[in-house]
Specification:
- 4 copies of one chain form a homotetramer.
- The first copy, chain A, is α/β, with parallel strands linked by helices and 323 residues long.
- Chain A has one domain: Divalent-metal-dependent TIM barrel enzymes (TIM Barrel, Alpha-Beta Barrel).
- The first copy, chain A, is 40% helix and 14% strand.
- At the A-C interface, helix 4, helix 5, helix 7, helix 8 and helix 10 of A face helix 4, helix 5, helix 7, helix 8 and helix 10 of C.
Chain lengths: 323, 323, 323, 323
């Protein structure tokens, strides 16, 4: 992999439905980057376009990154976090809105290219529905296929990673699993459409992160990864390793084995936690997991334990904790 | 039952984590009540103390209610929606904070009594934890039992309804099921501690609403009910009947059979929906369900279909849709 | 649609992990068909190959079907319910086992063709894993793509419907969502690979049945449908409509709108229920839902309520229960 | 704690709904004990009454235990795994069946006393319902309270542990959470009614095992523990630690801190896995977790990290993997 980044939203106020003004003071983009720059083991910064970085402030942003020896490692097109998108972006019944979604994506691709970033993310959290009998599903799928295709055709040197999620903010999202995202990418017929795998979203979709990562990588469509953890039911965005030790270890094992060459970003939302602590906890965990998958005996762990049932689990724990 | 109310938060901005300033303009308490007053079939208003109604504005509030022939039908003590409570209320490690929670509850009970309201609700959404190894669970339980007991002893003419919920805002809440709430109520030894049953929360806890309602009523601890619906996994707070037709019909059947004599309030959170529509949809559904459970043939539906497997389901649909 | 069928397994003993010899006496295939023949409103019978019907008994089977004016409406290739498949079928590490899976599929296609059945189902419940670090996910995906492709190439006049399911019997199955099944079908490059949509499996995968059906139909890959209901968390295989009234109504609405032309089979597993009751309850419900979606005012229900939030839910209930 | 046991059902055939004759050959009770006796680190055996051990074979059973230096560490009353119980045991509408459940419990208590076993388990998996409108919930609760009370009064020297579970075999079980089990125990008014905590069942009920264990222990009602792991959604009964490392570590931490003095049994169901492997994997994990919670620095881990958010998670990983 290229390195480890941090999403700047991790340093937000922690707003939610109940405490809408959040648990922490507001920091602007540049203050957030100063914070991230203090974290040892972080190589990159992920932002959203155009809310965080845009034509106006991209120069100042670049200067700050250079100053701290940080790289722009990820960029999401903001198509969710404003009520203007409440009826959808790429699937809005309003053609002007769909056009705006495509146009914003094109601009984001251009900005990414300027920064040498080879892919951006599309998380379409407002493209879905709250209630049954509310939307035309066939038209929505058609709009997704055509809209994403048109967005992708803008320039082949920047790829689009579809970040799937079962729900939120809409009660049900169209791109709700790794399989659905893959099917959509394939349906566009464009090689530069793939997936941004958010590990927490995969767990919510009842997927095993390592398994879906391996499939996406086998199909040459795994472009970017968001790291966070949860208690399986909802998108808690907790520090990496808070809950799923074995599944994270297996994910890192497969990313190494399949030569994943993209970035990984911490995508955390530490409501009542200090973002610095949440990042440090995650960085420590990721670094330990990478040490473990580099153990020589780890190389053949699957082959060695093939057809031996839970022997594979014990083999891992023996390597980690001793026999 | 006494009647149907509406929680004033239903007419809020619809703030959430992604669209923190919500999807709709802000309405003050009095504007919200004006809106509620336009709804046919609504008898009551539910508020939180002291945020919505308090010593200062209670006179004006009462006047407005009288004007519209509305009753105060529910009151929640606000112990969640401000960052001051982020380490808990009744279970905070800080004794001053625990004392404040008890004191606020006492004040709410007094205000309720002034309005002739026989019970208030305690939803302790910040009493829980985000991470493992974070809290002292035994101390927390002890604080719950003692704190709720002390709160309840203030006056026997106002009861406390514990509103359980599996999670949110804390990733895991202590009072996380109808059974846990009942056990806690029993442990206080106070007859005026019981439960506010939020139907959506029951579904999230993998409970059948009618079953837990019957148990709580059998134990004389079902004081108040919040109505809303969801897709089972999270607290979507959608209009009543959006998803669970059969389970809602069964709930109303059991509330009638067991002579539930409290209020029911619409507890909705229509992010992208017009609150008036969300209420109207709910009121229409509730009214139709109540018509159905009043069919004479419905009286013996369980006895008639006992030990006949899914015959019970067909019997319901035959009554509703014809044979 | 072509008509409504019943899976013969619905009339099995109801075996499960706890009561391994089931709740009911064993009936052989022909006794099961006699039972199904008594059900008014049923046009077809679904079986598994080669366990239920095979070269040896296909003549007798055809005679019995003709006698009762029933059609063979579905056929599953049995690749799960014997311990020989415990390490997988199409993804077994053993090439002979993979070859056997393909060969059995070819034979099933031939038998289907003899009966004029245009598609068969592949439910690969043993192709998955119990534990992390147990399987080679990349190899498994590759085997799926190549194996299904090879199976499909046998004859273009019979299609293969991949029946996805999140888990069971393996703790995690590879083909675990409608999206994953669609992506796999696309990856084979064969037009006669599509999906058998089991509505209960869709609910377990947190999908909305109508939505995924519309997407699959839009991609010309929706070949067959299994009907049953559950409480969302597990594959309860209860009578249709036991839980999800609105979502089933919406599914039938979309199947009509998109001119779904395949069969639907009752895929029930009434452990402690009489299968005749479970079928009758389901048939009554399906028939009522089809009446409702044929109401003239139902035709434009989505267009009429577009951008009106939960107005769509109320519109449905008003049509069904009156205003 | 007293020691670690193994449930003899772990060495069963692995029957399930799909492979009803299981994945492995049948072993009788004595063969199973011989297998268990080969496991290093196991002190006890758990059985069900009267299916495994009863008046007839208890002498032979005792001899075999003595021979292998094993203790009878747990006993479940078999009220589920035969179709005779399909309409319930303690809540059956048939008074004779309820009487039989109580009488069997009394006999089990007597046998337990003979073996010096201080508690037995009641898992009432058939006391629940499949469908709405099927059962009288108020009567069922009443029968539970009265029946369990009557069972418990038989002799104060043997306690009853209610083993709660959300579902299975019935689609919904009455005793479905740790809170509900505690409330029921309290409602009986008997000090010798408490809980058998099955960790997997707790996870299915969206509980945190350490938290519910601490509450039950604080109420002096935690009598026995079943160990196994799952992917959160269903009762997979996989080896301990297969999935939930942090939550298991926290559980062992709290059991030590609160001086839990009962037994823990492996309650596994290794369908496609060798039971010996499944036990060895579990025993290794349990032993490592107990080593970790004995680290001196672990003693004050909660106090040291109080109010520091995810610092607690990092503290654990630093102790385990180094800084």
């Amino acid at each position: 992999m290229k390195g480890l980044g941090v999403g700047v939203w991790t340093f937000g106020m922690g707003s939610e439905r109940y405490v809408s003004d959040g648990y922490k003071p507001y920091l602007n983009l540049f203050e957030r980057i100063e914070k991230i720059a203090t974290l040892s083991g972080v190589d990159g910064v992920e932002i959203t376009f155009p809310n965080d970085v845009n034509i106006e402030n991209s120069g100042k942003f670049r200067t700050l990154l250079d100053q701290h020896n940080l790289t722009l490692c990820g960029m999401g097109v903001e198509l969710v976090c404003d009520k203007e998108w409440q009826s959808g972006s790429f699937t809005s019944p309003d053609p002007q809105r769909r056009a705006k979604a495509i146009s914003l994506t094109h601009s984001a691709m251009d900005l990414a290219a300027e920064f040498g970033l080879s892919n951006i993310s599309l998380w379409l959290g407002q493209d879905g529905f709250d209630y049954t009998f509310q939307n035309d599903y066939a038209a929505a799928w058609n709009n997704l296929v055509e809209g994403i295709r048109e967005a992708a055709k803008h320039r082949p040197d920047v790829s689009l990673g579809l970040e799937y999620k079962t729900s939120e903010p809409q009660m049900a999202c169209y791109i709700n699993s790794g399989g659905k995202a893959l099917a959509l990418a394939q349906a566009t017929g464009q090689p530069n459409v793939g997936i941004t795998l958010d590990v927490g979203h995969a767990l919510n979709a009842r997927e095993n992160p390592a398994e879906i990562a391996a499939v996406l990588q086998a199909e040459n469509r795994l472009f970017h990864i968001h790291l966070n953890d949860n208690y399986s039911w909802a998108d808690d965005d907790m520090p990496v390793g808070s809950v799923h030790f074995m599944q994270y270890l297996e994910l890192f094992y497969w990313l190494k084995k399949l030569n994943y060459s993209g970035w990984m970003s911490l995508d955390l939302y530490p409501y009542r936690d200090d973002p610095i602590e949440a990042c440090k906890t995650s960085i420590h965990f990721v670094s330990k997991m990478q040490e473990i998958v580099d153990y020589p005996r780890f190389d053949h762990i699957i082959e060695d334990n093939r057809n031996k049932g839970s022997r594979s689990i014990r083999a891992v724990y023996e390597l980690v904790f001793g026999e």
